[in-house]
Amino acid sequence: MKSYPPERTHTIGVFGHGGSGKTTLTEVLLLTAHAVARAGRVEDGTTVTDFDPDEQRLRHSINLGVAPVEWNGHKITLIDVPGYADFAGDLAAAMRVVDGVVLVLDAAGGVEVGTELAWEAARLAQVPRIIFVNKMDREHAAFIRTVEQARERLDEAVVPMQLPIGAEREFAGIISLRRQRAWLIAPSHDGTFIEADIPAELHALEQQWREVLIDRIAATNDDLIERYLEGGADALTTDELQQGLRSGIANGSIVPVFCGSAAQVAGMAQLLNGILDSFPAAARRPVSALEGGRRTTIAPEAAAPLTALVFKTLIDPYGKISYVRIFSGTLLANSTVVNPRTGREERLGQLFAVRGKETLPVLSLGPGEVGALTKLGDVITGDTLCGRERTLALDPIAFPPTAHTVVVKPRTRADLDKLGGALHHIVEEDPTLHISRDAMTGETMLSGLSEPHLQLIAERMKRKFGVDVELELPRVPYRETIRGKAEAQYRHKKQTGGAGQFADVSLRIEPLPPDPARTDPLEFVNAIVGGVIDRAFVPSVEKGVRAAMLEGVATGNQVVDVRVELFDGKMHPVDSKDIAFQIAGQEAFRLAAAKAGPVIMEPIYELEVVVPDAHAGDIMSDLTTRRGRVLGMLPDGDGRTTITAHVPYAEVLRYATDVRSLTQGRGRFTMRFDHFADLPAHLAAALQAGREDRG
């Protein structure tokens, strides 16, 4: 593939709900542009962009795929993006680097969950959009119904640019509302069309929607609207209509709708032409970057300072591949670049153009182009690569927060030895993952977007890195404390034939008021007078108390918020030892805590759930059944409501799955630890009984 200047280079994302036909559409666009000799099939695992073994097994996309084509003297880099929320990280990455969005809708399914997620992401990123209604040959396909649904659920800016001729088995072609001509599918079904007049029975429908389209275009410019009102559509030239259309698409006031069938190779050439007509090339999008903490703008030109964003990382046992989008300047093979995040230089080797899993060596990449780099050192997804002359950092990718956490347990000792490296690589590949360690148990915690997401990650770790793991729900980090005051004395005396052990300890304990800023669960006070215990043994008593607090009194969970006063004791001149006072302190604390009204506390999280208004009642009812306390509701005026509540952590371990079920996948949430609260008595009794049953 030859090199193209920025004004003829486009990076376009193909988004939509899973199953809407994005990958097949991308494949057939490649065929139409003669980038491939034969279109692959998702069912056979032979498409260009679904080359990962997991994608071929599951028969849907789980990674973004890159597929450049040449069309009418332009280079269009298509990015096929997964449609399921489990893989929203790639949606965020792709949205950060594209010049425009093709939103694919199923003509029978209409606006689905993945459609809404992609639409909202594009709206927030202010990326221009067009819609392609696919599968017009499918049973129950209904173009006008789909358009009306999109206008209702997405935006009134949605307006047809084309109309289908027939539907389902009768789908026979496409009407262009701008050109007022029809393209009939050729009998050969090879993607060619026969130009013809608009069928008489569709003339009224064509006039109706053409008027809506022209109204929208004219409204983009005061001069256009004035002349349109005076002389109608005939008063506007073709160039003026095109200019108004592009202006409306750029500011979001027009979202044109195209139609066709990828399976029949129908509407593909028209869609490629529509992409060139609708979206700005890379040369028309100024680049915003940070330089020395200040915002600056860089021209998207080949001679400008270099800015390139790493937006995807793939790792296998043979090395690392970093996908980059060039925003300005020229990236050269065998050159040196700077990573502003680390401040370090990176020596580049060969550059590659990418088409699916195929990589072709190139000497350079310019603005708007997407390519791949191998064997980079400390470079991760979201990093900027820039030239030595100016340190420029592009805005990072805003990945979605984690929503589901599991404990990762290796199945064998060999798996344990390789686990750390595998987790490091898997997080490099997928920045939506987060690794942590439970401070109490030492267990490895893995957080991701959903339960299916983490299950797939476990399978990938086994396939790519040979690490077999089990995923379990994390243990709820209950805590224990006391509500009253108590004293206890314990004497430890042991004679073993030689030197014995002796320690006598008296403790007084009382609760401390909860304080989120407190870092130490124990306030230990030495109140010994008269030297009844040598000062050298006081730290031993404290050590024993801390050991008892760590093990808990009622359920084996850590005791917190306690003040312990060592006020009396005895020692032996020969037999008193460090270990004896540790044991005495430990047992004295247990005796005192048992008399001081021990209680079990559970972690309470603040949950913020954003759902469509229609599901707000279901969410609130569900939170009530989870012992939640709703703190407030805030409608945003755009059909969504934010619900804030305090909910016990034990009740939301699988909330990512549950909220998806309750809202048909349209809800999202975040949660953070807020405080501890007393566990209800019946649940505390059950927790204690469970501990006793386990021995």
What does the model show?
The chain contains 16 helices and 37 strands. β35 (629-635) and β36 form a beta hairpin. It folds into 5 domains: 6-283, Rossmann fold; 290-394, Translation factors (Elongation Factor Tu (Ef-tu), domain 3), CATH 2.40.30.10; 404-472, Elongation Factor G (Translational Gtpase), domain 3 (Alpha-Beta Plaits, 2-Layer Sandwich), CATH 3.30.70.870; 479-596, 2-Layer Sandwich (Ribosomal Protein S5, domain 2), CATH 3.30.230.10; 601-692, Alpha-Beta Plaits, CATH 3.30.70.240. The chain has 695 residues and is of the alpha+beta class.
Q: What secondary-structure arrangement, pairings included, does this model have?
A:
Blueprint: E1 9-16, H1 22-32, H2 53-58, E2 65-71, E3 74-80, H3 88-97, E4 100-106, H4 113-125, E5 129-134, H5 143-153, E6 158-160, E7 162-165, E8 173-176, E9 181-185, E10 193-196, H6 203-218, H7 222-231, H8 238-251, E11 255-259, H9 268-278, E12 287-291, E13 294-298, E14 307-316, E15 319-328, E16 331-332, E17 336-339, E18 344-347, E19 351-355, E20 358-362, E21 364-365, E22 370-374, E23 384-386, E24 393-394, E25 404-410, H10 413-429, E26 434-437, E27 444-448, H11 451-465, E28 469-472, E29 479-482, E30 486-494, E31 501-511, E32 522-526, H12 538-551, E33 562-570, H13 578-595, E34 598-612, H14 616-625, E35 629-635, E36 640-648, H15 655-662, E37 668-678, H16 681-693
Parallel strand pairs: 1-3, 1-4, 4-5, 5-11, 6-11, 32-33
Antiparallel strand pairs: 2-3, 7-8, 8-9, 9-10, 12-13, 12-24, 14-15, 14-23, 15-22, 16-21, 17-18, 19-20, 19-22, 25-27, 25-28, 26-27, 29-34, 30-31, 31-33, 34-36, 34-37, 35-36
